[in-house]
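Supplementary Methods, section 5.1.

A reviewer requested that the exact input to the structure prediction be made available. We therefore reproduce it here, unchanged from the version used in the analyses.
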Amino acid sequence: MAGTEIATPGGPLAGPAVSSGSSFHTAMRILPPSQRQAMFEIYAFCRAVDDIADGDTQHADRLAALEQWRTDIAACYAGCAPAALRSLDEQIKAFNLQQQDFFDVIDGMIMDVVATIVAPDAATLDLYCDRVASAVGRLAVRVFGLEEQPGIELAHHLGRALQLTNILRDLDEDAEIGRLYLPSEALAAAGIPLGSPREVIDHPAIEPVCRGIARDAQAHYDASAAIMARCPSRVVRSPRIMYEVYHEILTRLLARGWQTPRARVRVPKARLVWIVLRHAIG
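The structure derived from this sequence is encoded token-by-token as follows.
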């Protein structure tokens, strides 16, 4: 999948559904121990189902493994958690984590298994972002201690911001495995014929398509910032770190552009440290 991370967040939160834990671990280090443990349990779940979805076994085997996770999560809520999930079950109870959010993450993984995603329509892309990123955010904001409604709203917007940023960052990596997450409507509007993912992302008109997605991501970042500004600073420290790291990636992507050749965009370690320290002591 498109570089999904706990978006927490993100893209990702996350992870925001995780392909690399570095940004996640950076944002979680500043949490109190109980919250940190809960987030690492959520991370372990996301990592496990993501590994299944991106595995190289038969589709039927991967689907069966994901459905087993659904069964095991349901068992936690039925009061008979499998031994391997007792630590996660403790966090489910401690933070009132919702069963549907775990199921949504699993459903997002299934979307990547049942068919290779290539130029989905906008509604399908938004559903995918909700499942692999915002659903993780809905779990995370309960751990962070946000009130119900602003927490749901933050997960909605920040999850989508991080996941769209991941999609824009990972065009080449996704194309190498036959995936393309840019929406079909945007490609058609730019006059780009639907060929292989590599042909699409190397088309001369790819720049305005990606900049349009970047504008959508920025709108979600703006909405996220407005929500966090209304919340107590202590409950949004980790989301603010994820916001700043991924917004930095988007800014660097916009400066680089999307014409070939595309150099990989990363946030320097010194910048990451500065972001973390600013929020750890703020």
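The two ends are 35 Å apart (CA to CA). These observations are discussed further in the main text.
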